[in-house]
Amino acid sequence: MTHEHVLAVCRSNWEYRGLDDASVREMLAELAAHLEDAEAAGRTPRDVVGRDVTAFAASWARARMPLHRRALRMAAMVPFVAGGLLLVSHLLHGTTVVDIDAGRLAFWAAIGVVTVVLELRRGSLGFARGWIVALVVGLPVLVLTQRLVGEETLFLVPLWGSALLTLPGIGYLVAERRRAPGVTAAS
Predict the structure, then answer these.
(1) What is the average pLDDT across 153-163?
(2) pTM of the shown model
(3) Which has more confidence, 76 or 122?
(4) Where does the chain have alpha helices with state H?
(5) Phi-psi region of 24 (alpha: psi -120 to 50; beta: other; left: phi over 0)
(6) What DSSP letter does each residue of 134-187 carry, written as one string?
(7) I need a surface site. Which of 33, 88, 89, 185 has the fewest CB within 10 A?
(8) What sign does the CA torsion over 146, 103, 109, 57 have?
């Protein structure tokens, strides 16, 4: 594990979590100084950040980004992702209405709850761990729910409803983009 690797993983994690550029630069400079001091003392980067660089970055980001901001981000991004998935479903099925049954609802709710809890606690799950959550949590919930309740349609989501779900996330992303220092309208 090199200094560059540690700094790259931390930068990626902090940017994913929505920390502003100034905070990321400041944190990277501080971490780089700690790593250089450790190297001068004969210690490795692992001695500074531990075995799991992502967990280190996540804990530092949590200290920098208070719970209410993380919760607000999740509250905006969860419906955004749900709306995006529904829009893809509209597109794939070529319909203006998507039917939601109990199994599908339970599948996405289980994955959503586990993902939100893990991301608020640990940080980004990443692509591979996201699939593991889907297989280990979502799939059994889907099968169990379909066996217990059946596949009867609970409600229909129109195309405009799916688009409406994306609005909180779009609003949050626009607000974050405007808050970031050094971002101009031309960029």
Answers:
(1) 94
(2) 0.61
(3) 76
(4) 3-16, 21-40, 45-49, 53-64, 67-93, 102-121, 126-133, 139-149, 159-179
(5) alpha
(6) IIIIIHHHHHHHHHHH-S-EEEEEEHHHHHHHHHHHHHHHHHHHHHSTT--TT-
(7) 185
(8) positive
